[in-house]
Amino acid sequence: MNFKITKGGVTSPKGFKSSGVSTGLKKGNKKDLALVYSKESCNSAGVYTKNRVKGAPLIVTREHLNNSKAQAIIINSGNANTCTGDTGIKNAEEMCSCCADLLELKKEDVLVASTGVIGVQLNIDAIKKSIPDLVNSLSEDEHKNAANAIMTTDTVLKTVSLSFKIGDKTVTIGAMTKGSGMIHPDMATMLAFITTDINISTALLNKALKDSVKVSYNRISVDRDTSTNDMALILANGLAGNPVIDEENQDYQIFSQALNEINITLAKMMAKDGEGATKLVECKVINAPNEHDAEILSKSVICSNLVKTAMFGADANWGRVLDALGYAGVDFDINKLQLSMESSKGTIEVFKNGYPVDFSEDIAKQILSEDEILIIVNMNCGSCIVSSWGCDLTYDYIKINGDYRS
Amino acid sequence: MNFKITKGGVTSPKGFKSSGVSTGLKKGNKKDLALVYSKESCNSAGVYTKNRVKGAPLIVTREHLNNSKAQAIIINSGNANTCTGDTGIKNAEEMCSCCADLLELKKEDVLVASTGVIGVQLNIDAIKKSIPDLVNSLSEDEHKNAANAIMTTDTVLKTVSLSFKIGDKTVTIGAMTKGSGMIHPDMATMLAFITTDINISTALLNKALKDSVKVSYNRISVDRDTSTNDMALILANGLAGNPVIDEENQDYQIFSQALNEINITLAKMMAKDGEGATKLVECKVINAPNEHDAEILSKSVICSNLVKTAMFGADANWGRVLDALGYAGVDFDINKLQLSMESSKGTIEVFKNGYPVDFSEDIAKQILSEDEILIIVNMNCGSCIVSSWGCDLTYDYIKINGDYRS
């Protein structure tokens, strides 16, 4: 099925509102507090960082999601509320209860996420003072304020939506993410908030989210660092009115594909907006014996600092690609391997049958100077395909992280 | 035992000569071909890269070392002779046999190593033309020409020696290494050549080298990339005249310690001379429950791009250290953890008992502006200590790798 990504966001599905305000946590009066709200209770699911050090908001959200129900998410940027002990937990709880009071919900119906500097206590008073304004400015027509308020080093808003039909009912999914540095497979300093009006059981919502995160957010890397605060949350309020999806039927397959489309689109946007990045780099491993090996090889290539700097330099230094494949920890037959590099400007083959292939350095430079590069690794020993996405490593990455206490 | 590192090199032990000449593989008439030679046959051992893609010289050297005997090593820089198919193997063999003829050895007595660009056939004619000159200029008094000829992006010569007594016999170990980029645990783009006049069985020489590489070269990282060509080779010619070491007695322990001293010294030199690096960063995990966990945690910290850029910025951004510990994949109790950072200018404690510790940002800046930084992770739950060494990530790393076909 072909889905058409549109420019909406978390308020695109029926019954959702959002807002974003400034509390002063971020400098320069920038928006730093966001709220997503559904007028009906939602079946909800979450996927969390595997980092052993977990932020306070993550601990609180996981607890609040015990019953798989939620109706609002409050998110602040500028401070991760992590490594902040019991005080941090108390503050995360207070963000929820403060919102819940004004929205006439139980505090367990409110989820919480934070992103920003680690190890500094939240200015909870500033946040609490802003919550009435945050709640009052909730709107169906405006999703960009919220998307803006969750950004840290991001340079572009990351928000999309799409609609599709189940019978005669239109189902919509909307989403926003943030993430630029500290991005790595297994959920990095990224937050993803997905809203949908689909009618679906919590068990299948959970499964759909987990499966989708695996092939989207867990296949991108900016710098191999995974964060303490990452989560992807989905809220489904059922207002589309489709017959409830409670088995893995065709409706579920369509929803899963639509969710993948949303998440892969956002994942690629994150990779392309990686800290300091000038280009998106995709490594597609094709004709692999199995998904496991293909994923490991593909990730190894997009994670290599040497490949990333070569891409920055538009240098077809394919030896570094082979090197990254070699140390990935997966066996392969180098004599079957074919390597090529591709962009909208064309394709060059660089390695085949165990030997280098001659190519024009000038043409290679032209191809690699584009802002979306595809590295194709053809293993010629199976039929699996896996893509991972990363970006180049540039002077600006050093600048952003060498003197910004993020 | 306290060993005193001295400024010698591979010719410091009795009976060794070396030389280095220019063949034109490297631009600007730089030396790029080195030879190490012992007048007696040596018990020899090697440790090799775990990269699945292996350079031709590595394959040939491993074969020549089947009998654990060798008498010479020929090394070129400027070309890795890797991903070069059967032609590459033939060329590596030819480097050995050409040397062997002039030195009146069997070709199996000559080992070979290469470092430089991947995927380009060696200019074997240029090398063969230079071998007579290389052999003729062998000298006992000069080890720097050889050390120079194996450098790629290295900015300093890496060569050391030390002597110690076994009974009334003086035993000497000398060594040279190269390695700056593509450096990572499990043997990276690094070559290490160690000579010694100790009298030791091949079995124990093998064991001593393997154990020593584990705590030295395998505990450094510049950019998490491991190379196709890395090896550490040791030649022991027995000329010190000590009673042969053929059991793990006290003499063996002393030799092992001395070898560790040599290898750790060179490993730290490599990390400090990492591509673009301005400082050495050591992460020492103390009071750990076991060596395995301590090593994983320690390496995770020195490998994090975010920690590395923070060190470049002299920024005590300890949240990134905790983050790297968190995603290392090892369980620990964050409430027992203590973190501090240290240099010759002093120490600051930054995290304790689950909470941040207040510190002066000014003093932190002073401490972290030094060129050797120690990050101490006290786990408070055991007695193991493990150090790993890395460097900061700087603009120059991008410059070196963004436009240098290395």
TrEMBL record, chains A, B:
Annotated EC: 2.3.1.35, 2.3.1.1
Pathway entry: Amino-acid biosynthesis; L-arginine biosynthesis; L-ornithine and N-acetyl-L-glutamate from L-glutamate and N(2)-acetyl-L-ornithine (cyclic): step 1/1; Amino-acid biosynthesis; L-arginine biosynthesis; N(2)-acetyl-L-ornithine from L-glutamate: step 1/4
Active site: T189
Keywords: Acyltransferase, Amino-acid biosynthesis, Arginine biosynthesis, Autocatalytic cleavage, Cytoplasm, Multifunctional enzyme, Transferase
UniProt catalytic activity: L-glutamate + acetyl-CoA = N-acetyl-L-glutamate + CoA + H(+); N(2)-acetyl-L-ornithine + L-glutamate = N-acetyl-L-glutamate + L-ornithine
Superkingdom per UniProt: Bacteria
Site (Cleavage): A188, T189
Coiled coil: none
Cell compartment(s), UniProt: Cytoplasm
Main location: cytoplasm
GO biological processes: L-arginine biosynthetic process; ornithine biosynthetic process
GO molecular function, one term: L-glutamate N-acetyltransferase activity
Residues where substrate binds: T152, K178, T189, E275, N401, S406
Residues with site note (Involved in the stabilization of negative charge on the oxyanion by the formation of the oxyanion hole): T115, G116
GO cellular component, one term: cytoplasm
Pfam annotation, one family: ArgJ
NCBIfam families: ArgJ, PRK05388.1
Family to which this protein belongs: Belongs to the ArgJ family.
Subunit note: Heterotetramer of two alpha and two beta chains.
Function: Catalyzes two activities which are involved in the cyclic version of arginine biosynthesis: the synthesis of N-acetylglutamate from glutamate and acetyl-CoA as the acetyl donor, and of ornithine by transacetylation between N(2)-acetylornithine and glutamate.
Protein name: Arginine biosynthesis bifunctional protein ArgJ
Species for this entry: Clostridium tyrobutyricum DIVETGP
Lineage, broadest ranks: Bacteria, Bacillati, Bacillota, Clostridia, Eubacteriales
